[in-house]
Amino acid sequence: MAHDAPLLMSFAEGDRSMAGLLGGKGANLAEMTRMGLPVPAGFTITTEACRDYLSHGRIPTALPDLVTGALTRLERESGRRLGDAADPLLVSVRSGARFSMPGMMETVLDVGLTDASLPGLVARGGERFAWDCYRRLVLMYGRTVLGIDPASFEKAAEAVTGPAGRDESLLDVADLKALVTEFRQVLRERTGDDLPQDPREQLDRSIEAVFASWNSPRANVYRAHEGIAADLGTAVNVMEMVYGNTGPRSGSGVCFTRDPATGEARPYGDYLRNAQGEDVVNGSRATVSLADLSDLEPTAYAELLGHLDTLEHHYRDLCDVEFTVENGRLWVLQTRVGKRSPAAAFVLAHEMAEEGLISRDEALLRVNGLQLESLMHPQFAQTSESRLLAEGLPASPGAAVGEAVFEPADAVRLAAAGTAVVLVRTETSAEDVDGILASAAVVTARGGLASHAAVVARGFGRTCVTGVMSLTVDSAARTARTSDGATIQEGDLLSVDGTSGKVFAGALAVRPSEVAGALESDDPAEDTEQPVVRAVRSLLGHADARRRLAVLANADVPADALRARRLGAQGIGLCRTEHTLLGERRVLVERFVLDDDRVSALAEMERLATEDFTGLLRAMDSLPVVIRLLDPPLHEFLPGVEALATEVARVEALDGEADSSLTRRLRVVRSWQQVNPMLGLRGVRLLAVFPELVDVHVRALVNAADALVREGLHPRPEIMVPLVADAAELRAARTRVEQCIARTRGTRASSLHIPVGVMIELPRAALTAAALAEHADFFSFGTNDLTQTTWGVSRDDGQTGFLTAYLTSGVLAHDPFVRLDETGVGELVEVAVGRGRSARPDLGLGVCGEHAGDPSSISFFDRVGLDYVSCSAPRVPIARLEAGRAAV
Ligand code: ADP
Ligand code: MG
Ligand code: MG
User: Any idea where the Pyruvate phosphate dikinase AMP/ATP-binding domain is (predicted)?
Assistant: First the structure.
């Protein structure tokens, strides 16, 4: 920002493009003033003034005069004077940074009221009203400007209202006067000073308190989590007070231009009669709906609806609005583009596009893969605000119900006995990982979205809420307490909503995701569909029309392939052949490796693989199906050495002599053990040792595909070779595969061509891509292994150890196994794409690692020019959406 940026601007001077200087609130107040909405007059002290204050530790010297000038203008416009005994001007002092930020100083209302000017306020709205304002001022000034803890005031109030407190609307003039006396006493006791009786001093000290609150510990913690720069500073808005607390014809409210929870196109809001400021949202009194306002104040209501419409058209988005009615007259006090639930995001974007308010491309950009992902998780059928215990950060989505436990060991023990548990901790650390894994959900009192609990829970797919500030956990006593006084005992049922960050008491009903159900179902019953389902379908449709990237699925069995196809997959980009050998079928590998029963074991493997491939090709008829040759290290299929050794020892102890066949098995298994299996005998290297094992899958694929052709179908099988480091390896593998294809067919005629490609998952493969391309019809980037081998970080061990520490301490901003590391791994991808394509212009290019389904990585894959991403079936819609957004 230029150094001569203004320190102060009146609302009439700014506009919404100036949020950096005026803060979000100030910029929108200026915009509404320009638009002619009924905004009380006022001015904004800019973020520039705040930055100056923060760097010099005192109010900029030019500011007091600027404030004086602005106040004079305000007094002229309002016809009232600050401190006037007959008709005083009161103002609100409101913080407002570029990004809305909890932890910053709150608003102080009714600033400027003094003993001397109180009679003037009585004249304006009566005695009860005036003393209510005074009570609020002393309380807010004491709490936010002087930093006195709320409990001191609550205690003082008890002397007047009794220990249970009382509905504020029932307080009479005598009560209010007594409260003012009590609260001023608190100020004197705690600070030695009374409420300043100079209105300007009240104002100046409030402004300085807002500046200083920029560096409050809570604000700093929040900024660090959200990656908001620490030196932006906040603006301060000073505006003339309007009063919602003058009686039954006044009130204050908040509303949205549409329903922010469902997206329904109808204004939604709450109104509270005879109330000021935050009364309407703090839940101390029952509010009425916006519809009821039409009966109470028909004129103000009609006017409000008109403004909502104007604002929505102006901002071309959902807006939220704070308003006040003073004796039937409407005032608008704030607006901004409103926060919305994931479901509402889809409904709003779709319907606004239908209405022509925004383009379909804009609609697509207003939703994202994370929102779709959360819509595809199970949700609570109905959340009940009355059961809400506490609220924190939505660290890992989902809806989970379980019994509260406070120790990870208890979680493990109870989970083993089949009990669903929710682990409640102050925070978690590396020793708690077993407990997290055993739990349906994790709730922590501290920590942000990158805390240990959040990172581990996301990695394991556990529901998680972190940073529940109102919760105090006593794990020794196995209880927790909320700041409202509710307690959680071990065994109490909790319902945890990882999508909203809410924790409820008791067991709420969980219902499967409507969106996932609808997208997977065969018949889209269009007219009976929920709005959110319609919106998701429509935006996905637009994404499909826009996207350049094809979306394929990783699927190993026919059921997954069918599901993926229903979800929109355009083929299979990765079938892991090892899945045809796991589970009960593992004995076949044992027979092959350990028992020298090769011929019959191979025949059985081939029979089973042929069945699997037939199912896959049938499910994906006319679409590509990429079969990857056997990849994992052999030991994954063999019995564990320890178990076998124990068995050998047991038999020996029992019979007095060793069982020779058992000892032989142990010897063979031992001989296949590797210290570093992920860098050892696996992938294409298996061909050098067990070529027959690899041939099995080629033969099965050829026979399955040729048979389907004879049935009149259109299978499109492809083969890919894993873990290749060198072109010579690939050439040998390809020769073997092609010979095997030819031999399998024998004299049988087949016009079906089977392309052979290579996985790029070693840095050397990426670097020698030009040479590899000579022998490959396509590249498929295996970004899991490529990340592992580029970073030298085990993808299987990193999650629970130092990687978590890196993420929680901020050494790493993102887990490279979750979000593609564009700087390092991404560079290798780009190098391979460039070198591969220049050697072979028609080279196919895709990615089949976990990153293929990660919303933030997809735009990278689009940018570097891949042809497709291939991800797990449930992520197919997310990838379609993100691929569409990347193309807009
Ligand atoms: P927040 O950023 O927490 O929303 P605000 O600055 O919007 O805080 O103020 C809190 C409440 O005070 C809001 O309900 C707002 O409408 C009310 N308020 C702020 N300024 C005025 C004013 N000049 N007259 C009446 N009410 C006001
Ligand atoms: Mg507000
Ligand atoms: Mg791999």
Answer: 21-59, 62-285
Ligand 1 nearest-atom number relative to CA 323: 16
Check if 242 has its Cβ closer than 6 Å to any atom of ligand 1.
yes
User: DSSP string spanning 802-868?
Assistant: HHHHHHHHTS-SS-TTTS--TTTHHHHHHHHHHHHHHH-TT-EEEE-SGGGG-HHHHHHHHHTT-SE
Catalytic machinery residues: 452, 848
What 3-state class would DSSP assign to 8? strand
**Closest of 322, 248, 244, 323 to residue 276, by C-alpha:** 244
Confidence at 730, pLDDT banded by 50, 70, 90: very high
Name residue, tokens 């919303």.
855
Q: 709: which residues sit within 8 A by CB, 6+ positions away?
A: 715, 750, 751, 752
- Tokens 């593609």 -> residue: 820
Asked if 883 and 852 count as a contact pair (C-beta separation under 8 A), the reply is: no
Q: Is the CB of 26 under 6 A from ligand 1?
A: no
Range list of β-strands (E), 446-532? 463-466, 471-474, 479-482, 487-489, 493-497, 502-505, 510-511
Rounded to the nearest angstrom, the gap between the alpha carbon of residue 813 and the centroid of all alpha carbons in its chain is 15
Q: Does ligand 1 come within 6 angstroms of the Cβ of 92?
A: yes
Which ligand has an atom closest to residue 241 CA? 1
Count how many Cα atoms sit within 13 Å of the Cα of residue 183 in the half-sphere of its side chain: 27
Bridge partners of 269, per DSSP, are 255
| CA-proximal residue: ligand 1, atom 14 (nearest) | 277
Q: How many C-beta neighbours within 10 Å does residue 813 have?
A: 10
Picking from 533, 762, 738, 543, the residue whose alpha carbon sits closest to that of residue 629 is: 738
Q: What is the 3-state secondary structure (H, E, C) of 70-114?
A: HHHHHHHHHCCEECCCCCEECEEEEEEECCCCCCCCCCEEEECCC
Six-digit token string for 438: 């055993």
pLDDT tens column, 744-777: 999 888 889 999 999 999 999 999 999 999 999 9
Closest Cα to atom 18, ligand 1: which residue? 277
Question: How far is the centre of ligand 1, averaged over its atoms, from the C-alpha of 24 (Å)?
Answer: 14
The 3-class secondary structure across 547-605, one letter per residue, is CCCEEEEECCCHHHHHHHHHCCCCCEEEEEHHHHHCHHHHHHHHHHHCCCCHHHHHHHH
- Please say whether the dihedral angle defined by the alpha carbons of residues 161, 162, 163 and 164, taken in this order, is positive or negative: negative
Q: d(Cα 571, Cα 564) in Å, to the nearest integer?
A: 8
Q: What are the E-state strand segments in 355-407? A: 379-380, 388-391, 393-396, 399-405
Is a pLDDT exceeding 90 seen at residue 196?
yes
User: Which ligand does the CA of 576 lie closest to?
Assistant: 3
Question: What is the rounded distance in angstroms from the CA atom of residue 557 to the CA atom of residue 872?
Answer: 12
What DSSP string runs through 786-821?
HHHHHHT--TTTGGGTHHHHHHHHTS-SS-TTTS--
What span, in angstroms and rounded, lies between the C-alpha atoms of 777 and 526? 41
Instruction: Single out the residue of 147, 139, 148 nearest to residue 108, CA to CA.
Output: 139
Q: Which residues pair with 273 in a beta bridge?
A: 251
Per-residue model confidence as pLDDT tens digits over 278-298: 888 776 678 899 999 999 999
The pair of structure tokens assigned to 39 is 């905004």
The identity of residue 118, as a single letter, is L
First to last CA, the chain: 30
Does residue 275 have its Cβ closer than 6 Å to ligand 1? no
Atom 22, ligand 1: which residue's CA is nearest? Answer: 241
Nearest ligand to residue 140 Cα? 1
pLDDT in tens, 234-275: 999 999 999 999 999 999 999 999 999 899 999 999 999 999
The Cα-based distances of 134 to 114, 137, 194, 427 in angstroms read 8, 5, 13, 42
d(CA 199, CA 206): 11
With b meaning 16 or more CB within 10 Å and e meaning fewer, what string describes 668-689?
Answer: bbeebeeeeebeebbbbbbbee
Closest among 194, 202, 211, 204 to 49, alpha carbons compared? 211
E-assigned strands of 257-328? 268-273, 288-289, 319-326
